[in-house]
Specification:
The chain is α/β, with parallel strands linked by helices. It has two domains: 9-169, NAD(P)-binding Rossmann-like Domain (Rossmann fold, 3-Layer(aba) Sandwich); 175-290, N-(1-d-carboxylethyl)-l-norvaline Dehydrogenase, domain 2 (Orthogonal Bundle). It has 14 helices and nine strands. A six-stranded parallel beta sheet has the order 3-2-1-4-5-6, sandwiched between helices. The chain has a three-stranded mixed beta sheet with strand order 7-8-9. Helix 2 links the parallel strand 2 (32-36) and strand 3 (52-53). Helix 9 crosses helix 13 (262-279) and helix 12 runs antiparallel to helix 13. It is globular, with a radius of gyration of 20 Å. It starts with 8 loop residues before the first strand and ends with a helix. The model has no long low-confidence stretch (mean pLDDT 97). The structure holds NADP nicotinamide-adenine-dinucleotide phosphate.
Length: 293
Amino acid sequence: MALTKENTVVGFIGLGVMGKSMASHILKAGYEVVVYNRTKAKAEDLLASGAQWQDTVAGVAARANVVITMVGYPQDVEEVYLGAGGIIPNGQAGSYLIDMTTSTPSLAEKIYARAKENGMHALDAPVSGGDVGAREARLTIMVGGDEEDFEAVKPILSLMGTNIVLQGKAGAGQHTKMCNQITIASNMIGVSEAIAYAKKAGLDPTRVLESIGTGAAGSWSLNNLAPRMIAGNFDPGFYVKHIIKDIGIAFDSAKEMGLMTPGLELAKSLYEELAAQGEENSGTQALIKLYDK
Ligand code: NAP
């Protein structure tokens, strides 16, 4: 049976920088939305707009036939899906489970297999596009799993993103996201270095962006994060602690495949240095601080 607004209750777990905006689009589209977050205060706006609160992950899983998660780390994903109070032990048979957290490909495969054993449908669907993309419902969504499950939930994914592609079987979404993060990791070094160079050369960095933002150097990071670097706005955005997590996942995965990743290694050491200076809860654009010293 196709999912419709009438027969669907969407559960949303993880209402941080990204999840809060993503859940709001589903609510605005007219779906019944049931939410849970570790820190309840972050759900207040959604509750005021008509979302329903559950006190536990298990409570959301019992109510919803489509459960979306946007938590922080792979260990959060493991707990939320596979723990005793988790989605799979407490969810409805036939439900669709969509993890949009950036997590490991191997955990996505494990969740897919466990979901299948319990008559549920799991997809890994990490995103790109940042806090802006989440707010404006313009995310890129990279999906792994079965095609019929992808097609079933695509109308719901379309409420959060504009570029939604099935990349292959379970884990393929997370592998694709690692390609994205590998690109970003080296690109952010280039962006920081370019802005630091512009300042040292006595240029107006904002005017420099007017030229290089639309040429061959143009990128999402250059156009969205360099202005924040110039303005001295280091709010997250995308947390330094999360890019360190993502670089770690990509690094381990590349190592398993015997792939050399010198770009990732440099980014890893620079972001770890930044975190050691107390910047782990800043946005990734704080990388410029290493150059401004
Ligand atoms: P965030 O603000 O830290 O949000 C994560 C939320 O999940 C937090 O509100 C956290 O609760 C909640 N949470 C964690 N474990 C939980 C659990 N066991 N049960 C219930 N809630 C739990 O991070 P974010 O920036 O939204 O990022 C979320 C994920 O998306 C990360 O994997 C990140 O790497 C990825 N991502 C982020 C961006 C970006 O630009 N921000 C872009 C693409 C992908 P608390 O409120 O208690 O901490």
